[in-house]
Write a structure and sequence with these properties.
Pfam families: AroM. This is AroM protein. The chain has one domain. Helices cover 25% and strands 16% of the residues. The chain has 2 helices and 2 strands; from the N terminus they run E-H-E-H. It has a two-stranded parallel sheet with strand order 1-2. The radius of gyration is 16 Å and the shape is elongated. The chain starts with a strand and ends in a 14-residue tail after the last helix.
Length: 63
């Protein structure tokens, strides 16, 4: 069984910027990318996850 590498990101850095660095050491066929927010627009992310002013203490669960 070949080793694989999974990249889990929040969608800030495009995979196209990171992939060339990784493929120097690992075959592209062995890399899987999972993006938490990659398919959401900035507006959707802000609507669902933005912290509102006065909205809680550090460690509070946000939505």
């Amino acid at each position: 069984m070949k080793a694989t590498l999974a990249i889990h990101t929040i969608g800030v850095v495009p995979v196209s910027e990171v992939l060339p660095l990784l493929t120097e050491h690992v075959s592209e066929q062995q890399i899987t990318h999972l993006s938490l927010l990659g398919k959401m627009s900035r507006e959707e992310v802000m609507e669902d996850y933005a912290v509102e002013a006065g909205g809680g203490s550090p460690g509070d669960v946000i939505k």
